């Protein structure tokens, strides 16, 4: 049993979360023995003894924060979780189903942006929404790159468009196309062909608009995780979804730039420009 516990702790630290996790604590003076923490903890950290909650298997904890949120007396102390009084769940959800449905339905991808800059405070609010997104195995390994000035955003746009022009030519090459199909699948290749044709028509007619092929605004948030993380795409996608909803609620338009994802994963120039090699291998996944 002791060896199993040691194995669990090592795997948590080295594989699942990459960090040491301090177990929760219980203030026995405040604890009323309701057992809520015992019921909501999927890691079975707690148990009731003499009508008080105690931490029995602290090494199981992966800092999800459910015990803190569920305790009506706030007797559970979880140092790994960011907590604040205004985040205490109330008797009913903070938003009604109708309001949430309206928020989800009215959000649209924005294709034309104004030149109005997005403030640092606004960007931090958007990222905060992404940071509170649940992640697989609670790794919280999503990272953010923020480009918030016109010149930097323009540089990224140029790099991505240069990559796209090379890629569009490869799509029309009978030798290269099969390799692209193996990598991206039939639907991915068809999508590239579709955009390649539209891009070429716009170039031929000298009608390349500011929104084609990339509808860049005045700020770009890039969400990324390690490429060898199986759950990376899921974690990044859910974080971006929360970010976009927060942006919409603040009156800011947003758009998912799939071509930036393709370019940053496939093009070394873009990856190096974003300084994505700073973590050693440079094998990072974007969405």
Automatic annotation (TrEMBL):
Residues 22-51, 52-81 form the 4Fe-4S ferredoxin-type domain. GO terms for molecular function: iron-sulfur cluster binding; metal ion binding; oxidoreductase activity. It holds the Pfam family Nitroreductase. PROSITE patterns: 4FE4S_FER_1, 4FE4S_FER_2. The keyword Cell division does not apply. SUPFAM superfamilies: 4Fe-4S ferredoxins, FMN-dependent nitroreductase-like. Keywords: Flavoprotein, FMN, Iron, Iron-sulfur, Metal-binding, Oxidoreductase. PANTHER family: IODOTYROSINE DEIODINASE 1, NADPH NITROREDUCTASE. This is 4Fe-4S ferredoxin-type domain-containing protein. It comes from uncultured Desulfobacterium sp. The lineage of its organism: Bacteria, Pseudomonadati, Thermodesulfobacteriota, Desulfobacteria, Desulfobacterales.
